[in-house]
Design goal:
Elements: H1 3-14, H2 16-43, H3 51-78, H4 83-87, H5 91-95, H6 101-121, H7 124-133, H8 138-165, H9 169-199, H10 214-222, H11 232-259
Length: 260
């Protein structure tokens, strides 16, 4: 195993923050399930809701809530991975070790992604409630988890790029959050303004401004009613994959320059 991965994982799991964060994350998801189920129970007074409908609502709400929380946490674990080494003046020691710049990048990247993966897969027991209620099968759960993991992988790559570019964690973290916020807001604004003109080009092109929007990607995967172009998730995932690969290559190049 890469020694950086071992060190970072030991650091995360030995700190109280790691366990508190996991507990709060699961508590938030449990609260989400409770609210959705309570709302469904209140609606039962006006009519008996089908169990499959309740299960689908619980599943969609938990998956989207989970995506919001993990996207918020991704820059915390990735954007400061390399800058903390610069602030502690230990990056030079890493670069002169037997580890190559790519192995250093991979160690930091994998460590941040593995902890987020722990949070992601810890929600499986909670999502089992939706499966028990009906309307959701293993394929939907697998698709939601797979897409969430791919989106997190791309965001972590971007965070590591900023971490390799800046010298202070506050700058790299702020830029990562800023980019995430800008892409989501600007994509919705662009879609609202350009939809009439894009509609003339054909229905398939109406959602193109939302390709770099994680929520539109997930809503397309979940096939939420009336969302529109159901295949936008594939184009969106390809766009995020290209962005993640580009950020990874640039981060590795920055590390090689630091080595020189």
């Amino acid at each position: 195993m890469n020694p950086i991965i071992r060190k970072e994982l030991h650091l995360h799991m030995r700190m109280r923050r790691g366990w508190w964060l996991l507990g709060l994350y699961l508590f938030a998801l449990c609260g989400t399930v409770t609210l959705v189920y309570y709302n469904s129970a209140m609606n039962a007074r006006r009519g008996n809701p089908v169990g499959a409908v309740v299960g689908t609502n619980v599943f969609h709400t938990v998956v989207l809530t989970q995506l919001v929380v993990l996207l918020f946490l991704a820059p915390v674990f990735s954007a400061g991975s390399l800058t903390i080494e610069k602030e502690q003046r230990t990056l030079a020691g890493l670069l002169t070790s037997l580890l190559s710049p790519f192995e250093i990048w991979w160690g930091k990247y994998a460590a941040s992604l593995l902890y987020l993966g722990l949070l992601l897969f810890s929600s499986l027991p909670i999502l089992s409630v939706a499966v028990v209620l009906g309307g959701i099968g293993p394929l939907e759960v697998l698709a939601a988890f797979g897409v969430t993991a791919l989106l997190l992988a791309s965001i972590c790559s971007i965070g590591l790029y900023f971490s390799s570019f800046f010298r202070r964690s506050v700058h790299s973290t702020a830029l990562t959050y800023g980019l995430l916020l800008a892409t989501h807001i600007l994509s919705f604004v662009a879609f609202a303004f350009l939809e009439p003109s894009l509609a003339e080009a054909g229905f398939s092109w109406k959602k193109m401004p939302l390709l770099l929007n994680t929520f539109s990607c997930m809503m397309s995967v979940l096939d939420i009613e009336d969302f529109g172009w159901k295949w936008i998730w594939l184009a969106s995932l390809l766009s995020f994959a290209a962005l993640g690969v580009t950020a990874s290559l640039l981060a590795s190049r920055n590390l090689r320059r630091s080595e020189g």
